[in-house]
Amino acid sequence: MARHRGALRCLLLLFCVCAAGCAVAQPRFPMGAFVAGDYAAVRDFAAAEAESGDDENLALVWNVEAQCELLLGRPDRARGIFERAGQVMGNWQTSGSEATGAILGSESSKTWKGDPYEKSMNAFYLAFCYLLKGEPDNARAACKKGILADGEVADEKFQTDNALLFWMAGRMSKLLGSDQADGFFAEAKKANEFALQHGARGDQGIRALEQPTAGNLVLLCECGLGPEKFAAGDQEELARFRPRSHPAVRARATVDGRSVGKAAILLDVDYQASTLGGTAMEGIREGKAVFKSVSAVAGIVLLDQALRSHERHRDAARTQAIVGGALLLASLLTSTSADVRHWPTLPSTVQVLTLDVPPGAHDVVVEFLDASGRVLPTLSQRITAEVPTGGESWYLFRSLPPPMAPRRGEASAP
Questions:
Q1: Number of folded domains in the chain?
Q2: Which of 76, 156, 162, 335 is found 20 to 30 A from 134 (Cα to Cα)?
Q3: What pLDDT digit, counting tens, does each position of 38-79 carry?
Q4: Does 207 map to a domain?
Q5: pTM value surpassing 0.90
Q6: Is 132 inside a domain boundary?
Q7: Is residue 327 part of a domain?
Q8: 288 in any annotated domain
């Protein structure tokens, strides 16, 4: 009898653990509103999710909220929210119950901390927000954090191939008068060459990398929509990425009515996502898929044997029934599904154009082009760029309907 009670206790414990690992769904961000330029609606949705949605999704919804604040011309507000999201994403420690739930239950039952490319993008936006505040030291620190996050990729050969963050760290080092600038610039060039060799979209011999310190007007242009994460495999145990359709693939600019050419791709977000690795968790999910199948078969066999047992083998039959039921329940409650939560408002590429202009005000027009090179007129944006004497100005554009205010930053040596 004691043996039977022990088996029942194990069955109850297994049920409780598996039930605790319930999946947390991807928030239903209003992407239609985002693409249409209604950033306030998307921001309000994300803020409401942060207030009353799943706590496990806090960093995810904060990133979307902060990105919308930046598009709405509120960089100080954006910076604080990006910082909060980054603190969650940078916390590598996971509680024991959370780790158990993710392994035995659903992987998406754990706190969302983002894949390496998403952590790097959080660092990119945070660095830009610090730059807008006139803090190149903090901007460089954020870039370094993003470089470390990029190095979290499981496959060593794809580690630290984020040219954008290395280049930005070099520019910030230059402003600070640091001798680290040349090292960052060398790494940026190496990262770009490596990414191109392994399938990333981009360009060789671009001015930003060949003359990394040139230009006092920096235009950062984000094109398209970043990748979508989905579950693949017979039991949806594999996390995969697919590109999302958007007409804009390239940006170009004119300054004071003069064409200054096309921006060069310095970061392919789709490439970064597809090479993120994830070997350890994928191995766990594949193991769970095998366990799910095997335990189901074993449970059915034991239950069948228990039903067929002779009366004089009643104790053995009862044990078979309990163990078989436990295995069958374990199979039913074990989730093999990959965590498909992702940051959906990211761009597909980040492009850069560095220009030398006299200090003062300049009329800047940024146009976005489709794959055939045609201008997408509804996405064109015009601003007055202010370039300080002895410093530089940075502007961020997105291939979406124009925001309410430009995202502008000035940087100068302290």
A1: 1
A2: 162
A3: 999 999 999 999 999 999 999 999 999 999 999 999 999 999
A4: yes
A5: no
A6: yes
A7: no
A8: no
